[in-house]
Amino acid sequence: MKQDKIDVLLNELKTSGASAWEITDRSETGWEFYLIGSMLDQHRVRDVNHVRLKVYSEGSEGKMGSAEGELSPMADRKEMAETIASLLSASRYAQNPQWTLTPPAKAPESVPTACPEVDKVSADYLNAVAHMPRDESADINSSEIFVTKVTRRILNSEGLDVTDTYPVSMAEIIVNARNQAHEIELYRMFRSGSCDATGLQARLHKAMRYGQDKLVAKPTPAVGAMDLVLSTEAALEVYRWYISHLNTAFKYRGYSDWELGVPITEEPGGDRLTLHTRVSLPNSSRNCRFDDEGAWTRDMTLMKDNVPQAFCGPRQFAQYLGISDSFIPGNYAVDGGSAGSAALLQGDYLEVVEFSSFQIDEVSGDMAGEIRLGYLHQDGQVMIVSGGSVSGNMSDFIGSIRFSRETRQYDNYLIPAVTRLKNVSVAGGPDT
């Protein structure tokens, strides 16, 4: 939104009766590419602006309400006033204990590097896809690549006014694999900031191999309880479960019973998890200097050797917990474990590399996944399998979980490359 429009909006807010307000002005300049195989079919330029407005109203007995909505960047004074009045009216129906908005603060010393230009990131993606091998057994069917330069400005009634610029990109790629009898497609979505061309190509190579293996997979046998190995993006669900329990909103609402300084498990086995927030990770789409509420982000340790060190998250719930300097992290990093990947890939286990669905409920810890492709290692033999499911509960795994010394990055998460969960229930696929 142009500055003259911002000035008009600020004047309307000052006379509206709102007790507090927050504006998020987000501009996106992007390039989009649509490819068939390695050939560019069409492309276009996108330039959009989104303005989110949040207003607060005072209630009785130390309460306050809030409501938010989107405002057109082209809105005139009348439309602004009507939107503010509507949001104020809605805010009075949702009252919560009062909290304060983010005040202006000095920027920390550690900040992300300059934002790369859209043309540079786009060229990296196009070159990476163009140089993927193509043969009779597997190739890239089509690709859609979206590269965006985001400029985000946050203002509020406390006097905060901060602006940041960072890249956000996404590639949707369809991989085809075939043999003499069948052909299948595998869909991949890659999210990042700038392009990690080497990492993208490595994951596409794996997708091609997984597609070829899926063509010859057999039904998963009903093996009962067996160790589950996760070596692909599905492992994020495990570490997100840990992260959720260290979130201020999750803690305040009573979903997390973890306490600072108290180990989350007393079981002696397994690896002890250490988790950090990071201002910046290579190629991350969340290399932002400040969070969605305008608070400066920073490097911090949330958990060390299975012992919570800090809760972090939305300012409202942080203040309810008595935390004055919280922020919403953009990047997370998990330290590697005590052993290398090769040591964890020993003995009997089921490695699932493709799920139709894989979820871990943040509240209950229940885990459920439908197997699309896996490798069953049993009695020195390896069987390529498909179908069936895995299930269990995180409370049963945190005392015995193992994860590799080596790490791997998925956008804004740096996690161990291999994760091994002990005694997961494995149900067989059809015809077993």
Summary tags:
432 residues; alpha+beta; 6-stranded mixed β-sheet; globular
What is shown here, in short?
This protein has helices at 3-14, 77-91, 118-130, 197-214, 236-244, 248-252, 315-320, 341-344, and strands spanning 20-36, 39-58, 63-71, 95-97, 138-156, 161-178, 183-192, 218-219, 224-230, 275-278, 300-304, 307-308, 331-334, 349-360, 366-378, 381-386, 389-393, 402-403, 407-410, 413-416, 419-427. With 432 residues, it is α+β, with helices and mostly antiparallel strands. The protein starts with a helix and ends in a 5-residue tail after the last strand.
Give structural notes.
This protein is an alpha+beta fold and 432 residues long. The protein has 3 domains: 3-26 and 48-97, no CATH class; 118-214, no CATH class; 217-432, no CATH class. Helix content is 19%, strand content 41%. The protein has 8 helices and 21 strands. A hairpin with a 2-residue loop joins β19 (407-410) and β20 (413-416). α1 crosses α2 (77-91). The longest helix has 18 residues, at 197-214. The protein is globular, with a radius of gyration of 24 Å. It starts with a helix and ends in a 5-residue tail after the last strand.
Number of strands: 21
Round the Cα radius of gyration to an integer and report it.
24 Å
Strand neighbour order, sheet with most strands: 4-3-2-1-5-6-7
- Note the run of SSEs as H and E: HEEEHEHEEEHEEHHEEEHEHEEEEEEEE
N-end to C-end Cα span? 60 Å
Largest sheet: 7 strands, antiparallel
